[in-house]
Design a protein that fits this description.
Order of helices and strands: HHHEHEHEEHEEEEEHEEHHEEEHHHEH
Number of domains: 2
Strand content: 5-15%
Shape: globular
Strand order of the largest sheet: 1-9-8-5-4-2-3
CATH topology of the largest domain: Aspartate Aminotransferase, domain 2
Number of helices: 13
Distance between the termini: 52 Å
């Protein structure tokens, strides 16, 4: 009865008036709700055995030694930095083309983000530009797997090893992705994932740290519990970053079908590519042949900003939500204030940001909805 009621009143049945098609929708099935209900009804409310099970299953899925569940993707990156002892004026090389959490956590640790420009086709951190900015203060490199496609993470790790640096990979959108026959999460010093409502696997809110370093893993477990290694015995200054059991139960349920989810997302992306084929003013996503993309985002690139804005406004006027993924971080007001960043510093990122547009992509999306979106785009491009 509870599950039926939850299903009937779930977010999937709430249609917001301003958009016919949202850019993303949570993917929660009845068995997912049942798993959460079972956790709650058995009084597994805080972090407990279900979280432990989730961690074990996630570590096994990625082929890593350790997985540490936390309350958000942001926490996964923050705790990773702290476990590595990064802060107090240290420098972390990262990308300007991402959600703000990636570099916000660097600043929260009193370290400095050193932005490096992106590749013009994948929009990932350009490894060829990393070594030029390494200094004696550099402690880590923090790339993101943009949209769900791995950065050149093996090459980045080779650069890091050469210079004695750690790699903290922000894989928030990339669970299940593959880079050169290696699962995303199995390569870098530490990797963080996000399980928010728009992710391919969601736990309501939540995150995960994975690492093959046992010492770093143990430190993260302590840091997520306010720095305590046992009750009322604090050996670090930490946070409350724990994941509750009901959230982990949702994650375990969804993990059973994660590969099916990714196959479906790739099918949706392929259909978009087919429908947009032949429009010279638009570039569809570039996928390296050694990568498996997770398509948490489907982002197209226009020939100029004027056309992007025409399409964006036209879609939204027809009830289609879109996103600009992402405005350059170094040009955000707080970053300009803190670091005196200015236009022209990272020309590829700045140019790409003016021309990208994220289209709706979610598991329940129909070909009719994709036809509706692409027909609008074709019409507006021609007009």
């Amino acid at each position: 009865m509870f599950v039926q009621l939850l299903y009937k009143t779930s977010l999937k049945n709430i249609v917001l008036a301003e958009f016919k098609i949202r850019v993303a929708q949570p993917n929660v099935l009845e068995e997912d709700a049942q798993a959460m209900y079972d956790a709650v009804i058995t009084n597994h409310l805080g972090p407990g055995p279900i979280v432990t099970e989730f961690e074990e299953k996630m570590a096994d899925y990625m082929g890593v030694k350790n997985a540490i569940a936390v309350n958000s993707g942001t926490s996964s990156m923050l705790l990773s930095l702290d476990a590595l002892g990064i802060g107090n004026g240290d420098e972390v090389i990262t990308t300007p083309f991402t959600f703000a959490a990636t570099s916000n956590v660097i600043i929260q640790r009193n370290a400095h983000p050193i932005f490096v420009d992106i590749e013009p086709d994948t929009f990932n951190l350009d490894p060829k530009k990393i070594e030029a900015v390494i200094t004696e203060k550099t402690k880590a490199i923090m790339p993101i797997d943009y949209g769900g496609q791995s950065a050149e993470i093996l090459e980045i790790n080779e650069i890091a090893e050469k210079h004695g640096l750690a790699v903290i990979e922000d894989a928030a959108p990339a669970l299940g992705g593959v880079h050169k026959n290696k699962k995303v999460g199995s390569i870098s010093t530490m990797t963080g994932f996000s399980f928010g409502p728009d992710k391919n696997l969601n736990t309501g809110e939540g995150g995960l740290i994975v690492t093959n370093d046992n010492e770093l893993a143990e430190k993260c477990k302590i840091l997520r519990k306010n720095g305590a290694d046992r009750r009322y015995h604090h050996v670090e200054i930490g946070w409350n970053a724990k994941m509750p059991d009901p959230n982990a139960a949702l994650g375990i349920s969804q993990l059973k079908r994660i590969d099916e989810i990714l196959d479906k997302k790739n099918q949706l992306a392929d259909y978009y590519n087919k429908k947009l084929e032949g429009i010279s003013e638009i570039i569809t996503p570039t996928i390296r042949n050694y990568n498996k993309h997770t398509f948490m985002l489907y982002v197209i690139l226009f020939k100029n900003n004027k056309l992007r804005e025409k399409i964006r406004i036209g879609l939204e006027n027809n009830g289609v939500e879109t996103r600009i993924n992402f405005p350059p971080l170094h040009l955000q007001p707080i970053y300009k204030k803190l670091y005196n960043f200015s236009n022209g510093m990272l020309p590829i990122c700045e140019d790409i940001s003016e021309r990208v547009l994220g289209l709706p992509i979610f598991l329940k999306m129909t070909e009719e909805e994709q036809d509706y979106i692409t027909d609008i785009i074709r019409k507006l491009v021609i007009d």
